[in-house]
Every structure is written in C-alpha cells, then in structure tokens.
Amino acid sequence: MSLHEVASDLTKSTVIGDLPNDILHRILEKLPIKDTVVTSILSKQWLHVWSTLPHFVFDHLFFDHVGASAASIIRKILMQHTESIQGFHLISKSHTLLQSDVDQFIMFVSNHGVEKFTLDMDTDWKYLLPHSIFTCSTLTDLKLSRCMLKLPVPDAQFPNLVSLQLKLFSIERPVGSNNATLILPMLETLELMCCFNVHSVNLVCPKLVNLSILTSYTITFQCFDVNSLFGRIKHELALVPATDTLDVSLNLQSLKISDLKINVKCFSSLFYLLRNCGMLVELDLDLLEKVDATRNHSSELFYYLKSHEQVISEALQTIRKVTLRKFQGTAIEMYLVEVILVNSPNLKRMSLKKLEEN
C-alpha cells in the first residue's frame, strides 16, 4: 500500500480500529510484544488483528518482563495465531527456555510459512538445531547465533534461502566422516562471524554474490571449497587474508579487509589476493596493528614494499577507490599511502579515516 493510500485511509477513519489490517499490523509491530498482546482484549476485531500478526519479536525486553513464564507465554501466543507467520525472531538471554521449547517453536513456525527467522540463544547452554529446520522450504532469511548443528544431515538444503547469517555458530560432525553438503540454490548473501569448524561443510550456492567473513580463527581459502565459490562473488566484506593458493580469478568488485595486521605476512597475502581480482574497483582496509614501535618489523615491511614493486603494481591496476581505516599517520602508514598512489593508475579517490571516524 502506497503512502498516498495510507493517508487516504487515515482521512476516512474516525478511530484507529477502522484502519486496514495491514496498517494495524505495522502499528502493532512497532510496540513491545507485551503491549501488543493487551490489544487482543479490546474487541473481537482487535483479537483478529492480533491473531493474524505476521511478525513476532521476542527480545530481551520480553524475557526481562515475563521471566520464568517465557516458554509458556510464547507457546500460548503461537497457538492463538491463525495465519501464516512471515517473521519470527527469538533473541533470548533466558535460562528458563529448554531445548525442547525452542524445538517446538521452530516446528510451529516452520509449519506456518515463516520467511524470516532469527535465533540468538545467549544462554548458559548451546542450542542444538533440530534437523527439522531443513524441512522449512519457505525460509528466505535466516540468522543463527550461539547455536550448533550436527552433521551430516541427509539432503540438507534450504531451497529458497536468499540470506544466511551465522554468528558464534559451531558445526560438529562424527570423527572420520566426510564433509557434508548444504545445498542453497537461491543464496545471494552469506555472513560468517566467529564461527567454528565451518570447513566441515561444502556449500552449493551458484547465485552467491555477497560474502562476509569475520573471525577470530584462521580463515583459509579451502573453506567451503572457496576456489570455485569465489569466482562468482562480487562483494566481499571482512575477510581475513590468508596465504593459500587460488586456482581461479575472482570477480570481486569491492573488497573489505577487517583487522589487517601491518606486517609482511598479511601484506603479502593481501597483494597476492588482489592480483587475482581483475575487476576490483573498491578496496577498504581496516588497519589493526601498528608496527612502527618495533624497528625490525618496520624495516621488514619497508623492504617488502620497496622490493615487490611489480607484484604491488599488478595488484593495484584496477583500483579506483581506497579507504584506510584506523589511520594514525605512522611512518609505515604514510609509506603505504605513497605506494598505493604510485601504483594505482586508475585511482580516483583515497580516504584516510582516523579511529574515531570509524
């Protein structure tokens, strides 16, 4: 419904209850769920509006308010619902929820056409995802935090999933078992944040164009059979550079490196990676570590940058925009700026951002 149509309905309505259900749904979704529930006792009409609400958010405010009754209240709310559920978001710090409770919630929303599902289990136990989640063919957006999954799962796939975000997520598989395959034919965006044992999965995702990897662990290019995967990715964020060889040229158009250590090993990996990105136009470097205080490290890096001019020149040929974050103006940083300016014939813009500007 357009803004003009909404305004027209508002002028015709004398009370809020006369508004169309989709407008009432939007209003209720802006309220804390504890207040939304109260509207169901106003009238039969409001009960119908409540029972057809398409999105549910059970967040920290909800759990702080209901305490130990959280599981039973969520169960009652879901049982009263009569229509499909487009979005279900469970963000829990509650120690009262059991594995069986969350399993029931997932089963219910899976059977009611859920499209967007968020699960963040910040509790003293790690939630084990049931294999039944793979039966939910309607999912388009999935965000999982502080959960775990046991593999292999036969025929594991999300046929309509477009966006997948995994945070503090771990994967377990039997000792000696082969890597499992997860089929994601429609996936376009994948975000991995501090995940553990992700290399246990081979992803089949022919439409993937956006990949974000942010981790405190070592990332290697073998992860997710990435040699073939990277060939299709256009935008990459937060990749920790590694030194593994790449068998294909990459189609990256933009690349952000988070927490880039200023040392020879990381810069060598960076320029090697850039040489495989013949279409790259935007480079964003988030500088992590200053080495000027360590004379030996600084000398090594100065020598590397001076002695590998050919490699660096090949790496920077297509770059048009460079951003250096957490910039402090140290001697090695200033020399890096000089190297980039000299070896980037197509450079149009360079931004230097201090730590407080990030």
Automatic annotation (TrEMBL):
InterPro entries: F-box-like_dom_sf, F-box_AtFBL13-like, F-box_dom, LRR_dom_sf. Residues 13-61 form the F-box domain. CDD domains: F-box_AtFBL13-like. Signal peptide: none annotated. This is F-box/FBD/LRR-repeat protein At1g13570-like. It comes from Solanum pennellii. The gene is LOC107019175.
